[in-house]
Amino acid sequence: MTPREKEIINLLKKNPGISQQEIADELNITRSGVSTHINNLMSSGYILGRGYILREDTYVAVLGGCNMDIIGYSFDNLKVRDSNPGKIKYSSGGVGRNICENLARLGINTTFLSVLGKDDAAKNILDELNHINVDSSKILISEGITPHYLAILDEEKDMYVAIADMDLLKNIDKDYIDKNKKIIENAEFTIIDTNLEEETLDYILKNIKGKFLIDGVSTKKVIKIKNLLNKIDFLKVNNYEAKTLSGLDTDNINSLGEDLIDKGLKSLVITAGSRGAFYFEKDFKRVRKPDPVKVVNASGAGDAFMAGYAYGLYNDFDIDKRMKAAEAAARIALKSANSCSKDMNENNLKGEIYD
After folding, report:
1. Are residues 36 and 111 located together in one domain of the fold?
2. Co-location of 222 and 289 in the same domain
3. Residue 177 lies in a domain
4. What distance in Å separates the CA atoms of residue 346 and residue 344, rounded to the nearest whole number?
5. Is the Cβ–Cβ distance between 183 and 192 less than 8 Å?
6. 3-class secondary structure, 74
7. What φ, ψ does residue 226 adopt, rounded to 5°?
């Protein structure tokens, strides 16, 4: 923010209804000059919308997938190549969107950068985001169908197979990133999922200033960041994604974590189900075993884990408490039928941390 823009912000704080001409008269500059500064402040995220709504607090940016989830599960043991009586549910999803919702429910100001189509699915998603106070004003509305994610769960309510139709995410390109550059640079940190195109990830991590937390998403998608590890502040992957990214032919999580840190990562968590969550940074590591929980739906647990970790980072928790927050958020998600739990809030998270 320039000194002149700070002067304008101060005037807007005193009088949100002030006109651009009144600002110009007060500061002895032209009205067109005021308009340029106002546009810059809106692009940078300091002004959130009409009526000069100002951003008073710090925020987290999330850049990634936003889609409609279709989740099906069988009442009995899943039988392949057969029709299985069960349940099918529709809900808003996407790794980036899920992280956004969890962060917002945990009381963190969150700006979402993503893309949606011109359809009813997009309208429903936007309505839900606005209802929980996620800043959705920077989401790109593009020609085409909103991304969809179709998952079949097994009898343990864990994912058996899934199909992701994410072609619209190709519209998150260099131009879109440049347009929203200040949103990323002014955030406390930016969480990115690897649903983005490899060229987009490469451009962001090499050219945009900021602190970046990356969610690996899947074995196929995490490989996009293989040559960008030294640009990443924190990475969350599961043990399969870690093995794919490392290239080592081993299931030893300590070896995988140490190898990825040696390749340039600043910090890393590898989640491994019942084996626990493994945290690594240079010459330091921690392992936390999960508390038992009755799983209702596992599809959103990883996204909640990332949100819980980000919540801890945002609030300056030490690494042990940060990992507890991540695990607590994942447990809340595991007990929900939806990918994001409506029970996700600070009180319930603290309850899970300290119980």
Report:
1. no
2. yes
3. yes
4. 7
5. no
6. strand
7. -55, -40
Task: Give the DSSP letter of residue 247.
Answer: -
Q: What backbone phi and psi angles, to 5 degrees, belong to 261? A: -65, -40
Q: Residue 335 — φ and ψ, nearest 5°?
A: -90, 5
SS3 percent helix, strand, coil of the chain, rounded to 5, is 45, 20, 35
Pull the structure tokens for residue 122: 């997009």
Q: Which amino acid, one-letter code, is at 286?
A: R
Compute the distance between CA of residue 21 and CA of residue 286 in angstroms, rounded to an integer.
58
Contact 65, 114 (CB under 8 A): yes
| Domain contains 70 | no
Closest CA to 135 of 225, 223, 44, 211: 44
> Which residues are registered as beta bridge partners of 86?
74
Same domain, 45 and 119: no
Residue type, 266: K
Copy the structure tokens of residue 268. 């890393």
* Closest CA relative to residue 301, chosen from 343, 350, 340, 348: 340
| Digit-coded pLDDT (tens) for 217-255 | 999 999 999 999 999 999 999 999 999 999 999 999 999
Whole-number Å distance between alpha carbons of 247 and 23: 59
Domain holding 11, by residue range, is 3-49
Q: For residue 53, count other CB atoms closer than 10 A to its CB.
A: 11
Q: For helices 31-43 and 3-14, what crossing angle results, to 10°?
A: 90
pTM for this model (two decimals): 0.82
Q: Contact 349/332 with Cβ under 8 angstroms?
A: yes
Residue range 173-212, pLDDT digits in tens: 999 999 999 899 989 999 999 999 999 999 999 999 999 9
**DSSP letter assigned to residue 117:** -
Residue 85 lies in a domain: no
Beta-carbon contacts of 24 under 8 Å, excluding residues fewer than 6 positions away, are 30, 31, 33, 34
Rg of the chain, C-alpha, whole Å: 21
